[in-house]
# Entry
Amino acid sequence: MALLQIAEPGQSAAPHQHKLAAGIDLGTTNSLVATVRSGEANTLKNTEGRDMLPSVVRYSAEGVTVGDAAMQAADNDAENTIVSVKRLMGKGYSETLALNDKVPYRLVDQQGLVAIDTALGVKNPVEVSAEILATLANTASETLGGELNGVVITVPAYFDDAQRQATKDAAKLAGLTVLRLLNEPTAAALAYGLDSGQEGVIAVYDLGGGTFDISILRLRRGVFEVLATGGDSALGGDDFDHALVSWMQQQAGVSNLSHQQMRQYLTLARSVKEQLSATDTVNFSLPGTQQQAELSRAEFNQLISPLVKKTSRACRQVLRDAGLTAADIATVVMVGGSTRVPLVRSEVAAFFGSEPLTSIDPDKVVALGAAIQANVLVGNKAEADTLLLDVIPLSLGLETMGGLTEKIIPRNTVIPVARAQEFTTFKDGQTAMALHVVQGERELVENCRSLARFELRGIPPMPAGGAHIRVTFQVDADGLLSVSAQEKSTGVQANIQVKPSYGLSDDQVADMLKGSMQYARQDMQQRLLREQQVEAERVLEAVGQALKADAALLSAAEFANIEQALAQLAKIKQGDDTAAIKAAIEHTNTLTDDFAARRMDQSIRQALKGHNVDEV
Amino acid sequence: MAISMTTAAAERVRSFLHNRGKGIGLRVGVKTTGCSGLAYVLEFVDTLNDDDQVFEHDDLKLIVDGKSLVYIDGTQLDFTKEGLNEGFKFNNPNVNGECGCGESFTV
# Structure
């Protein structure tokens, strides 16, 4: 018979109505799956009894292998064994050119996106991630005794729309229903139950095998808001191992290691590192020699100290970005296997001035948090009000005339969200409008990131400024954007799902935020200039039209005067002197005041011709 | 009339209750739904109802409402592993027929 789990009071499901949900930590180095059973979140072990699945996929002639089996083959078949695919998610081919020398496999261009050429054909990062997800989901459904109803997958807080969409696509390809994507630091905070605790600022320090992330979250009214993220995408426990290997090489007096030897040394280094978390000194023999060596924790600390200091610097930077000091941080959460190293713990404690939370296994904490969230979302828990919300990392907006950014949804807005704004036409009789969706904090479009372009056609011909076009930005719970534009009188509309082809790295997001501060003044001046240029163009257009239509109302001298003013304005407009453009516009306006009045009179006269006063 | 459980089941119930941080015991019972008539209920208990009967098992309380008891009297609750899957199992002497998956039954 079926095996049962204990439910919350009154929450027993009817037969065949058990909702199976799992949380998945899709990591750069390792991935895990976890679920809540009988009120308890646990990671799930596969048939080999391991809960950590190396995020490695091998495509060989014999078929696809995932995890440990794939990793063992990495040495002999490196070009078909894909590691750290997470770094490629949502990236354009051009963005990954720099990686080409660093990875053993061949990166290729797949319609602008990066993909990998393997023995089983070209595979893109979405397909590779789907293999990992399917393997984890398989473990989960075997363990839970049924198909999964839904999963929560965690992503780094700095993942942009493209990377999030790629993750969702991978889940779809693996046949999974994504209940939602959850930020990794938020998941860690959830695992510690911080969502039901006191409101305040939380720092999540995540030092994994190959990446370091520091996130500052604020919990307010049950909502986790990401205040700032930072880190180093090429710093982790693997660097500790390499530092240790260099030291061992010195001791052994060997300079060049073969691939095989390097592996031996790395395995030894990892084991020594792990032992030093528990003991003060470790004795070991150096591979390939008869030599014995001894390493104390103090010596080890010295070796890795420069690396740990690097993380402290990133913490300082991210606090500065968030406009906070270490004293503002109420709680520090530790994530990632490398936070087991005593020096890391003591440095973090010293930096933030408080003991970090370490009671939950740092390798599992993100998956456990995801499992708790999945359990709530699938409907197994009554307290549905613990639904978590996130915020958008960078402002979303539209390009307006003059290459300026009009922000529709400012950064840090809680999602899901929908915001609308009205725009109008720039020229008489304009029947189409190009909409350019951008993301970023800068004033000029060229300094922001282009997300998508689409066109609204079929606007009825009207004078400039006559049409009402309502543009709606909607961001769903997973942080994915859709934009629609509708002309109000006819109802014609166009919309787009933003599925951008290029990703941003955490560094780029940080740079974009920094840039918006650094260039604030310059941006403002640029904006003022562009606004005057747009205004000048509008005046040129309007007066030009009027001259064509009603030149008869002007004397030859007046006509020449205005023409000259227009020529002057057109010339000044090209320059970058905001004040001069403004003066030239005013000059043209003054000069044409009388002309405008005469045109007005004439049109009134024409309108009233043949009518008596009573009718008007 | 009595309900009991195996040592394995008791260990798990104790650990789950401890982990949950609250609750006075474990409710076992049936409700009238399911493809084959009746379905088992297995829930944490925070408050007792009037018609509840309590069976002590060492330090643990097994709680059954009066109506359910007639269907599951003599049942032994067990905790087992089947492959990767693990969970609770009702060894109920009153069962006459089960649906294919065993989630519901008739007496």
The mean pLDDT of chain B is 82. The longest strand of chain B covers residues 38-45. Residues 55 and 62 of chain B are 5 Å apart (CA to CA). DSSP finds two helices and nine strands in chain B.
